[in-house]
Amino acid sequence: MTAAPPSADTPPNPGPAAPGPATRTDRLLAAVAGILAGYGGLAVATVAAVLVRPEAGPVAAVGDAVVDRTPAGVKDWAIRTFGESDKAVLSFGILVLLTLLAAALGGLALRRRAAALTGVAVLGAAGALAAVTRPDSESLTDAWPSLTGAAAAALLLHLLVRRLPSARTAPPPPWAAGWRSAPRTDRRSFLVAGAGVAVGATGAMILARSVGSTRSEHAAASRNALRLPKPASPAPAVPPGAQLDVPGISPFVTPDRDFYRVDTALVVPRVDADTWRLRVHGAGVAREREFTLADLMRREVVERDITLACVSNEVGGPYVGNARWLGVRLADLLRACGVRPPSAGGTADQLVARSVDGMTIGSPVEDVMDGRDALLAFGMNGEPLPFAHGFPVRMVVPGLYGYVSACKWISSIELTTFAAYDAYWVPRGWSAQAPVKTESRIDTPRPFSRPKAGTVAVAGVAWAQHRGISKVEVRVDDGPWQEAELGAEDSRDTWRQWVHRWQATPGDHTVAVRATDGTGALQTEARADTMPNGATGWHAVSVTVE
Questions:
Q1: Rounded to whole angstroms, how far apart are CA atoms 45 and 374?
Q2: For the residues of 338-394, what is the DSSP string, one character each?
Q3: Using N-to-C axis directions, what is the helix angle for 113-132 and 144-161, rounded to 10°?
Q4: More confident residue, 108 or 5
Q5: How far apart (Å, rounded) are the C-alpha atoms in residues 138 and 347?
Q6: How far apart are CA 543 and CA 40, in angstroms?
Q7: Mind listing the pLDDT tens digit for each residue in 43-78?
Q8: pLDDT in tens, 260-280
């Protein structure tokens, strides 16, 4: 049966109204839609990351990828400029960039919806790729947070932008293909929907934080329940006179809260001590073994005062600290696994420590087995290790810079060779081996300070771990070098305080310091950057005496 043609009196169907020109208000609201969609997507990704693992979240994954691919010189600049806040600055920068991209995609969606949704998909794919290529990634499920977050952001962007009066009509995305009802296209509807997205996303963030806090609380509970064993070999008491009575000088023992932290972890791993394991394997390991924290604590426990220094520390910089460490001798553990150093016929010359977040740190086997107090530490200054400093177990090796020895959150030790494997920092321009250099620092007076004429205490610290400090000298302007008074030596593995009583005269002056280590070698004057194996040069400060 043929349908009757429309009569001349029947008005033609005009179809959907064409969108009007994009107004300034709608362009602004489209950018807001992009930001809200991005916020919603990030909230979904955060919830997914809690279910998968926090390190797989898009901000953490992208941040680690940025850190991993940033030139060493730029990393060094960030550490110098932002100090221990460099990770917070990076995370904030990523969030700002994501906000700007979201706003731009929102504006694009007003007229070219498909292109904007494609942009969201690309961002999700980038986050997923960053997550699955992390050194610690063991499953493709790490991609799930970024992918689900991108899908949620795309859906929210589509739903929000199509409510704007000047939005160009576009078919819904595939997951909404069955929807038939057209939304209201007015700004009030947009504002209501946007408010709903903001409230929902905030609720999801709160949920993720709550669930994440529960997991973190398990790790915190395991730390709080940990009772450190008494050392079979306790550290000698710090000798009287090791701490000089000079205002402004660094304390001989650095409090945990003030101990420097330089690493690549945007999210500090919170490891449950009850489930932690350490695997020892690789070339020259006659008996591959796995240890629990309880296993370590049943071994001979030793306590030692050891100063650690970061290779990124510039001349006069703050990235050095001294603490009392509690743990077991690494050499004893290796011998229990049948490992021999190269000097005794061992096949491996490099120990590669791997942390739970995938960081790899390579140390010379000969150094960690030569009799020095190289430790697997689980205590710091009388307490279990703080999470930020490697709980439950970390490596501490006197005489080596941290990047070739001080693996935090350690999970495995592999024996290999320097020829066969480059640890994390080596391909990035740092030396494979890096003993600590002789250094000295003026703590007081501070640069550009204005001390009063008369006796001024010039004081600070000097260090040359595993060699010790035998002498410190101070020079004012172009005058002669004068020997400073040394604080008592705790051990050759700790720094040493010093002070010089300067009879200061009015005017501008430059005060410099240099140290001599326990072998008689003088600290070099030659200025060198931190790359590739530590800065050198004499520290100097300029002051104006009044």
A1: 41
A2: T---GGGT-S--EEEEEETTS-EEEEEHHHHTSSS--EEEEEETTEEPPGGGTTT-E
A3: 160
A4: 108
A5: 29
A6: 54
A7: 999 999 888 888 888 888 888 787 777 776 776 777
A8: 999 888 889 999 999 999 999
